[in-house]
Amino acid sequence: MSTLNDQYYIQQVIAGNVKAFEVVVDQYKNLVFSLTLRMLKSREEAEEAAQDTFIKIYKSLSKFKGDSKFSTWIYKITYNTCLDRLKKDKNAPELLNLEEFNEHHVLSTEVILDTIDEKKRRQIIQECIHLLPSEEAFLLTLYYFEEQSLEDISKIMNVNTNNLKIKLFRSRKKMATILKTKLEPEIIDYYESGRK
Length: 196
Description:
The chain is an all-alpha fold. The protein folds into 2 domains: about 5-90, RNA polymerase sigma factor, region 2, helix turn helix motif (Rna Polymerase Sigma Factor, Chain: A, Orthogonal Bundle), CATH 1.10.1740.10; about 105-190, Butyryl-CoA Dehydrogenase, subunit A, domain 3 (Up-down Bundle), CATH 1.20.140.160. The protein is built from 10 helices and no strands. The protein has helices at about 5-15, 20-40, 45-60, 70-90, 105-115, 120-130, 135-145, 150-155, 160-180, 185-190.
């Protein structure tokens, strides 16, 4: 949906046209659900969080000032809704304790990913993201799949850009650790040795 379309439907909803909100939900439901699923790791929880997110969007639509993209505002509400649920859930799974890679290992795994066809690459990244803690899964989803800028992600996650860069690098390091176990070790050795 373009910014002009977003504004049109936002104004329609604020004016009392409930049907216009159906268009907004239809436009963003897949996005919201995929983000809630990445963070909450459970389909049932994700569906409930997605519903909660749209209720919050509907109730606070008049507060959207347009100083960021509408999608960025929706991401932020989705993120905060999931964080609230995670804070309430004391039985949430423990965060993965993954070995730390250096920057060379991260770059090596990303070079390997670049050689894999797009469909397979996306599948591998999705599988790895699913194994990461919620916040990191959300961050990498925005970065790899939603192709959000660092500036937009910092607004969504309410962190300054420098801290976000650190979080992003750490998340990518964790993902590289998972990737190393997923990808053939000999392929990684092949690329890391610099052979062609």
